[in-house]
Amino acid sequence: MAEARRGRTDRTPLRRPTGFEDQDSHRATCASAGILRGPVAYDESLCSDTHCSCLCLLHRDSMFPMLWVLPMLFAPAAALEAPRRMQAQFAAQAPRLEGRLTEWQQATPIAFSGRPLAGHPRHATVYALWDAANLYLAFDVYSSPLQAQVREHDGDRLWFDDGIEFLIDAHRDRGTAYLPDDFAYHINIRNTVFDDRGTPQGQPDKAWNGVARHSVHILSDHRYLVEVAVPWAEIGLTPVAGTTRLGIDLCVNGSDPATGAYDYFDWCHLQVFHDPSGFGEMELVG
Ligand SMILES: [Ca+2]
Fold first, then answer.
1. Is the pLDDT higher at 45 or at 251?
2. Cβ–Cβ < 8 Å for 204, 212
3. 126-145 confidence digits (pLDDT tens)
4. How far is the CA of 214 from the centre of ligand 1 (A)?
5. 98 and 72 both lie in a single domain
């Protein structure tokens, strides 16, 4: 995933991929690690482009050891902000995941947006509900013309398809390591999933497969709805209104079918996605 909130000071330095010997393998390593996926991360010109943080690390260490420090010294106020917050409302009636937005009106939605992609505006509204069995999320997304290629579970490059992601830090540790209480779902508009969970070593493991229920409804050429029910047993918490809080980020991926241009936008403006220190917070209410 790619740029946003440059010069953050509220996190440890970007995770350095290891084992790369040239720029192509470096990019591949970043991609497989889920780091800095974005249009800039795959542009051949990026080795000299400060928009590509993964490649900047290469340059930072070898060529410009001081220049990259300066933006961090003058980080915008947003970098010092408290975590973003949202609420999940208790669901008097569980949503059926059948594409009915009316079932989500009991929630307090949040909205976030991205840069236009191929001239098309992009934004998302996310609804969160809960009951004793599940945490429920619904993503109502507007984007460029929709496309998706990946049909295999845990298929490579699924995040280049139109689709959504959410990442959860169940214990709200807000650490930089991606631990076993941290997990992520990527769901493209074919309703295909790439899911992973953290390990004791702090790395995402795509061999983990979750059991969340999910559905996708295409509402127009530019709009779709993804609904998800994540069991609390999978999250590893017993939900309590007014007490339970999760670390969470919400993301939308998209590629323009005419140009192939890719971009994402996320609620928390993460720079490294498998890094719970940048996640926002969700409180259960109701
Ligand atoms: Ca998996």
1. 251
2. no
3. 999 999 999 999 999 999 99
4. 15
5. no
User: How far is the centre of ligand 1, averaged over its atoms, from the C-alpha of 163 (Å)?
Assistant: 16
CA dist 158 to 31, 93, 178, Å? Answer: 11, 32, 20
Please report, for the domain that includes residue 160, its CATH number. 2.60.40.1190
Start-end of H helices in the chain: 23-32, 53-62, 69-73, 232-235
**Host domain of residue 65:** 23-79
Residue 184 CA to ligand 1 centre (angstroms): 9
* pLDDT tens digit sequence for 17-50: 333 334 444 444 444 444 444 333 333 333 333 3
Distance 170 CA to ligand 1 centre (A): 18
80 pLDDT band (50/70/90 cuts)? low
Give buried/exposed letters for 140-156 (b at 16+ CB in 10 A, else e): bbbbbebbbebeeebbe
Q: 207 CA to middle of ligand 1, Å?
A: 5
